[in-house]
Structure formats: C-alpha cells, structure tokens
Amino acid sequence: MTTVEESIDVAVPVSTAYNQWTQFESFPQFMGGVESITQTSETSNHWITNIGGVERVFDTEITEQHPDERVAWKSTDGTSHAGVVTFHRLSDTDTRVSVQLDWDPETFIEKVGSVVGADDRQVKSDLKRFKAFIEGLGAETGSWRGNVDAPPTASAPTTSTSASGLAAAPESDPAMDDPESGGPRAGF
C-alpha cells in the first residue's frame, strides 16, 4: 500500500474550498490524469483515469463527509484506493487543504513510480492546480453540503437493541465506580 500526504493553503474561505471539492465532475480541470468523473448518486462516482499510459476505470463511494471539515472515499471496484481530504480554517479568507491517499500500485510502472515519489509529485501538482483553479474563480462552481457519517468500526462496542429499536446502554461495572465522584476509579 502506498500512502501520499500533501497539503496546500488556498486564499479562499473554508466553505468555498470545501464546496468546490464536492463538485467531483470538475476534477479533470485541475487533476492530472483524470479524464472524467461522473457522479452516479450523492455518494457514488464513476472515474476514468489515464496516468502514465495506464487507464483505470473504477467506482468510488463517499464513506464520510462533513461540511467544511472532510470528505473521505474508497473504491468499490477496479483499482484499490481510499483517501480523505480535510479542510482547516486558517482565517476568514484562508484554508489549508490536506490530502491523504492510500492505494495499491498494480503494474511495474506504477510500483516504480511509487518508489521514486511520482505519486507525491502528482498530488502536489494537483493541489497547486486546485489552488489556481479556486483562487482564479474566487467562488465555488457548486456545492453539496450533505452529511455522511463514517461506517461503524469493528472495534466499536456492541450494544443490544431493545424492543423499541433503541440501543440499550452498556452495562456498568460497579467495581469501577468511584463512590466519591460518581465516575470511574483512577488507575484502572
């Protein structure tokens, strides 16, 4: 698995940067190698890329999205990758956009490119083009401000469900109660 992490500061408010990033079909205007993206639902996209002569066709699903904070996705078929973009308010007019991309290079050329840092350079270049794109416009071309909660993790505690359909509170361990504060005992 290859991981790329890059950030860039853009001179637009956080909502403008975030709103533009939700316009997936505009990605070919600033992402090298992305030929087209077709949004098939509020949380699904169909991608066609051609990077280094290797064409990929795959679908992605938004796995978590919170306005002005983050957009996370994973592939659902084809090439194996996942990522997250986070938006950090620096001031009323400046935002840091941070990208983390995880993917499995498949071909020899992709593996060599990963080793020599071509992936990092590509993402850095894409972020520079995003900066020029959004700052040049001065406003987003559209927005989707829906919320998508992350799926529950395997390590999350399980709770039983009552007849009413609401999750029952986990049982407490009386041995862990601190009678003076009503909370857990220190040191456990």
Explained architecture:
The protein has helices spanning 14-21, 108-115, 118-137; strands spanning 2-10, 34-41, 44-51, 54-66, 70-75, 81-89, 95-103. With 188 residues, the chain is of the alpha+beta class. It is 19% helix and 33% strand. A hairpin with a 5-residue loop joins strand 6 and strand 7 (95-103).
Question: Keywords, please?
Answer:
188 residues, 33% strand, 3 helices, 7-stranded antiparallel β-sheet, 7 strands, alpha+beta, single chain, disordered C terminus
The string of secondary-structure elements, in order, is EHEEEEEEHH
The chain-level structural class is alpha+beta
Number of helices: 3
**What is the CA-atom radius of gyration, in angstroms?**
21 Å
- End-to-end CA span: 37 Å
Q: Level of helix content?
A: 10-25%
The total strand number stands at 7
Name the strands of the widest sheet in spatial order.
1-7-6-5-4-3-2
Bulk shape: globular
Percentage of residues in DSSP E strands:
25-35%
Short précis:
By secondary structure, the chain is an alpha+beta fold.
How are the SSEs ordered, and which strands pair?
Layout: E1 2-10, H1 14-21, E2 34-41, E3 44-51, E4 54-66, E5 70-75, E6 81-89, E7 95-103, H2 108-115, H3 118-137
